[in-house]
Amino acid sequence: MASSRFAVAVHVLALLARAGDVPVKSGEIARSVNTNPVVIRRILCALSRARLVVAQRGASGGAQLARTPARIKLSEVYRAVECGSPFSLHPAPLRRCAVGRNICAVLERVQGEVEGAIERALAKISLQDVLDELQACGAQGAKRDR
Amino acid sequence: MASSRFAVAVHVLALLARAGDVPVKSGEIARSVNTNPVVIRRILCALSRARLVVAQRGASGGAQLARTPARIKLSEVYRAVECGSPFSLHPAPLRRCAVGRNICAVLERVQGEVEGAIERALAKISLQDVLDELQACGAQGAKRDR
DNA sequence: CCCAAATGTAACTATATTGGTTACATTCTG
DNA sequence: CAGAATGTAACCAATATAGTTACATTTGGG
């Protein structure tokens, strides 16, 4: 089961970007994503640990981007909220078999190649690129909603 | 939860490669992988549908590679047994929000980039490469076990 | 020609992950 | 200091995965 945390995280960051420097509350974000505020806070928490957003507690708190959208790469977002590899190794192959004994070492290298490929693909895309595409997609879109 | 089907599939194919043209039974494979024969048969079934192996039913049946190891790319194996994307889109963002309305289209493109990157990374590795690395890893390894 | 052995597959179970929800301690601001 | 927000724990439902049993189907050998 692939998680949707990355998708939600990008959605969240896009909303924060459009809000500029006014802090956005988890409840508002949750409405746009169409989920529960706690789910959003969990994502925000991960993004905050990764230094991509800053959250302010207390009354009139909320979250803002920690950097300009051009300086946030999707690879950082991915690392912040997903586990990394699209497949895992099998637990305990038979050690008294030439294949079973060594296959995991080989597969770990393959796993490394794949993770690197994902990382590089996502490093090419910035949050600003996402905003630009959103703008292009929604050329018909209203400006004055949130 | 990332599945281990790809890892098991590569393990299975390596065993078939080493068996040459003698058919290997799911039970024998299961012993090396250290799992249940049905789990192996499920993987073999997917690999068979992808035309990577041929299975023979009935007494003295079993599975063999459908091609030489050099002509089997790990990208084909991955496609045969895994679902594709390491992340999924979130179900139903709010359509009356400029971001919510268009984010999924943008994310689908990102998803495409990532899937392409995985595909290309795995297309560079053949089953023969895996066999060579197994050999290198297990240079100390016995030849006469299965 | 049948029987043993193998695949293909359905059905069920246990376990883990994910996302949704409630609840609440903590931390701010006005 | 009161209200509002985050951070987080605890729980639940839904789903995916892998393991297991069971069995219909197929096939080759005696």
UniProtKB/TrEMBL annotation, chains A, B:
<dbReference type="Pfam" id="PF02082">
    <property type="entry name" value="Rrf2"/>
</dbReference>
<dbReference type="GO" id="GO:0003700">
    <property type="term" value="F:DNA-binding transcription factor activity"/>
</dbReference>
<dbReference type="InterPro" id="IPR036390">
    <property type="entry name" value="WH_DNA-bd_sf"/>
</dbReference>
<dbReference type="InterPro" id="IPR000944">
    <property type="entry name" value="Tscrpt_reg_Rrf2"/>
</dbReference>
<dbReference type="InterPro" id="IPR036388">
    <property type="entry name" value="WH-like_DNA-bd_sf"/>
</dbReference>
<dbReference type="GO" id="GO:0005829">
    <property type="term" value="C:cytosol"/>
</dbReference>
<protein>
    <submittedName>
        <fullName>Transcriptional regulator, BadM/Rrf2 family</fullName>
    </submittedName>
</protein>
